[in-house]
C-alpha cells in the first residue's frame, strides 16, 4: 500500500524518484498534543468578540495564521476584514487564554519518530502556521538540538499561511532540497493541502477528532492513526524510498 502510494505520488507530480533527505514536521497536533487547548482557546475568545467558532471548526482550520483565522471569522460575522489593531487584540487574548492552561505535552510517538529520522540520517524541520511563542520556545527544551531557529518556519515568516504552499516551499528552501527529497508530516487538512500543493509526499497522522476521510479528501499521500504508528512504520518508508530511488 505504501509503495503504491509513493508510485502514485511520483506519477501525479511527474517526478522520476522519491529520495527524501529532510522531514518537515507540523508542530501542533504532531510534535505537541496542543490542539485541544487551541480549540478551547479559540472557541472561548471568539465568542467574547461575537465571532463564534466551534472547537471542531478550529481543527478544520488548523494551520492558518492567526490573522487568517481572525479574518475568516470577521468576514463571516462583520462582513469585513479585521483591522491590524483588532487582529492584534484578538490574537493576544487567544494567546493569553492558551497560556493559562497547563503546558501541552509532547505528542506520544514524536520522540520515537525523531529518533528514526536521525537513524536514517535525514534532516528535520518545523513548518507551522502557529505564532504561539510559548510553544515555539519549547521546541529546543523538549526536542534538544532538533529544531534550532534556522530550522523553523512559523507564521511570522510567511505572507500566506496554510493551505497555501508558501510555508512548505520555504521549508524546502531552508532545507536546500527539492520536493521529491522531502516528507511532510501533518495532522490538519489545511496542512495536508499545503504539503500536497508544494508537491511533497505528505503523511497525515490523524491525532485529532476529524474523520479519516477529511484528511484523505485533503490529498494525504499516506494516512496513519498516530505518531506512534509512524515511528513503527518509518523503516518501511525508508525502504520504499531506497527502492524508488534505485529503480527509477
Distance between the termini: 19 Å
CATH H-tier superfamily of the largest domain? HAD superfamily/HAD-like
In N-to-C order, the SSE pattern is HEHHHHHEHHEHEHEHEH
Taken from the alpha-carbon principal axes, the silhouette is globular
Widest sheet: strand ordering: 3-2-1-4-5-6
Mean pLDDT: 93
Per DSSP, the total helix count is 12
- Give the tally of β-strands: 6
Low-confidence stretches: none
- Total domain units: 2
Which structural category fits the helices and strands? alpha/beta
Task: Fill in the CATH topology of the largest domain.
Answer: Rossmann fold
Residues in helices, as a percent range:
40-55%
CATH architecture of the largest domain: 3-Layer(aba) Sandwich
> In the CATH hierarchy, what is the class of the largest domain?
Alpha Beta
Q: Could you tell me the strand content as a percent range?
A: 5-15%
Task: Tell me the major beta sheet.
Answer: 6 strands, parallel
- Radius of gyration, in Å, reads 18 Å
Describe the structure.
- The protein is an alpha/beta fold.
- It has helices at residues 2-13, 35-48, 55-60, 66-77, 84-100, 110-119, 133-136, 138-142, 166-175, 189-197, 212-217, 227-247, and strands at 22-25, 123-127, 152-153, 182-186, 201-205, 222-224.
- It has 2 domains: 2-34 and 104-247, 3-Layer(aba) Sandwich (Rossmann fold), CATH 3.40.50.1000; 35-100, Putative phosphatase, domain 2 (DNA polymerase, domain 1, Orthogonal Bundle).
- Helix 1 (2-13) crosses helix 12 (227-247) and helix 6 runs parallel beside helix 12 (227-247).
Amino acid at each position: 500500500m505504501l509503495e503504491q502510494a509513493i508510485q502514485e505520488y511520483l506519477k501525479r507530480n511527474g517526478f522520476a524518484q522519491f529520495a527524501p533527505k529532510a522531514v518537515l514536521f507540523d508542530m501542533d497536533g504532531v510534535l505537541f498534543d496542543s490542539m485541544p487547548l487551541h480549540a478551547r482557546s479559540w472557541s472561548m475568545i471568539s465568542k467574547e468578540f461575537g465571532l463564534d467558532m466551534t472547537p471542531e471548526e478550529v481543527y478544520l482550520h488548523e494551520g492558518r495564521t492567526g490573522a487568517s483565522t481572525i479574518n475568516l471569522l470577521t468576514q463571516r460575522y462583520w462582513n469585513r476584514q479585521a483591522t491590524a489593531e483588532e487582529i492584534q487584540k484578538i490574537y493576544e487574548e487567544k494567546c493569553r487564554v492558551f497560556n493559562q492552561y497547563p503546558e501541552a505535552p509532547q505528542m506520544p510517538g514524536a520522540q520515537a519518530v525523531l529518533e528514526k529520522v536521525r537513524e536514517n540520517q535525514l534532516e528535520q524541520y518545523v513548518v507551522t502556521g502557529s505564532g504561539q511563542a510559548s510553544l515555539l520556545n519549547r521546541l529546543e527544551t523538549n526536542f534538544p538540538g532538533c529544531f534550532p531557529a534556522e530550522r523553523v518556519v512559523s507564521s511570522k515568516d510567511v505572507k500566506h499561511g496554510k493551505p497555501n504552499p508558501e510555508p512548505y516551499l520555504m521549508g524546502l528552501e531552508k532545507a536546500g532540497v527539492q520536493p521529491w527529497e522531502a516528507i511532510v508530516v501533518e495532522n490538519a487538512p489545511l496542512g495536508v493541502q499545503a504539503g500536497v500543493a508544494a508537491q511533497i509526499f505528505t503523511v497525515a497522522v490523524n491525532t485529532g477528532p476529524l474523520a479519516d476521510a477529511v484528511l484523505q479528501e485533503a490529498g494525504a499521500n499516506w494516512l496513519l492513526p498516530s505518531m506512534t504508528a509512524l515511528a513503527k512504520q518509518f523503516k518501511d518508508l525508508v525502504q520504499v524510498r531506497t527502492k524508488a530511488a534505485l529503480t527509477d
